[in-house]
């Protein structure tokens, strides 16, 4: 029966070598088994880590935005459209960070696609940290300017960098776990056990941050990416963000703001980021006689979910060193 069924196809395709029957069988099996496993797309690295940690071996997790890409400036690629069209679930941070995907999702024709916003229910901090009041010339045109740059952060949505706080990261992990259980209840016990183990590690990390940063309460630092207000709030530090998002160059106004903020807040350090050209910050650090450190917003690095802890440990060391009083 099977051989007869395949025969006409082989004749019709006689120009090309007919696919061996075994291949056909294999690919059918692959489709059958991947149809069985839940297909998940996670938007960027922290969402991937949390999701992968929970999914373990029982679901397939794909990362959309490659490590090291700027999430704020990302533009959708054809492969992303395909991934979203084939997924059962997309895991997003939310707070408008991934609003650039809205259209792709709407146009994907994927009626079965479920979405999780891991920040759902989390009380957001205002998008702009207090020091960075929008300049007057930005006033009315602010939203348009952001659209032009390919990101559309409404101020109402709040600052999206929730994953930088190990406590809120637990809430995000729970939101993702519950979403996975909802679409794939047969693997509930696996998701629960995996999430519990990851949350235990996040709790341990939080204890270390609490303990080790206790002596440096109110330590203020200057960043050029408004990515650390949740981390700062959690551990009684003060982030002074000079620009709203990572910018390719600092304006003379930004430099002026930095100088004023250093004085006003008695800032302990300047924080640049890995993979960013820090030349301007280096000279600023010399001029201000303030040390420049590198802090990691966790959008680059290894795909292993354990990388979150490695990078955060390194951030903890950086914060301790930067906040230590000079003696
Ligand atoms: Zn950011």
Automatic annotation (TrEMBL):
InterPro entries, A to Z: AdhesinB, Bact_metal-bind_prot9, Lipoprotein_PsaA-like, ZnuA-like
Disordered: annotated span: 136-157
Molecular function, one GO term: metal ion binding
Keywords: Signal, Transport
Example GO biological process: cell adhesion
Protein family (similarity comment): Belongs to the bacterial solute-binding protein 9 family.
Name of protein: Zinc ABC transporter solute-binding protein
Source species of the chain: Oxynema aestuarii AP17
């Amino acid at each position: 029966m099977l051989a007869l069924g395949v025969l006409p196809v082989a004749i019709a395709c006689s120009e090309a070598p007919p696919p061996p029957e075994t291949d056909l069988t294999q690919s059918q099996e692959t489709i059958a088994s991947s149809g069985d496993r839940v297909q998940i797309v996670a938007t960027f690295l922290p969402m991937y880590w949390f999701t992968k940690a929970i999914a373990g071996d029982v679901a397939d997790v794909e990362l959309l935005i490659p490590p090291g890409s700027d999430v704020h400036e990302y533009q959708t690629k054809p492969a992303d459209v395909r991934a979203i069209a084939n997924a059962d679930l997309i895991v997003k941070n939310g707070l408008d960070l991934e609003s650039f995907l809205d259209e792709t999702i709407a146009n994907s024709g994927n009626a079965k696609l479920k979405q999780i916003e891991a920040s759902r229910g989390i009380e957001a901090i205002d998008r702009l940290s207090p020091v960075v009041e929008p300049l007057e010339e930005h006033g009315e045109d602010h939203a348009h300017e952001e659209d032009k740059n390919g990101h559309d952060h409404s101020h109402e949505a709040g600052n999206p960098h929730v994953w930088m706080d190990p406590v809120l990261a637990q809430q995000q992990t729970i939101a993702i776990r519950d979403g996975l259980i909802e679409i794939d209840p047969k693997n509930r016990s696996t998701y629960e056990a995996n999430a519990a183990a990851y949350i235990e590690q996040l709790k341990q990390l939080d204890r270390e941050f609490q303990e080790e940063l206790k002596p440096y309460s109110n330590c203020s630092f200057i960043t050029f990416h408004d990515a650390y207000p949740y981390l700062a709030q959690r551990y009684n530090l003060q982030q002074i963000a000079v620009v709203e998002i990572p910018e390719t160059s600092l304006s003379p106004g930004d430099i002026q703001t930095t100088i004023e903020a250093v004085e006003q807040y008695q800032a302990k350090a300047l924080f640049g980021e890995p993979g960013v050209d820090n030349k301007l910050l280096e000279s600023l650090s010399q001029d201000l006689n303030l040390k420049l450190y590198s802090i990691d917003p966790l959008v680059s690095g290894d795909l292993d979910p354990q990388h979150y802890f490695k990078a955060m440990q390194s951030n903890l060391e950086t914060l301790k060193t930067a906040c230590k009083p000079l003696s």
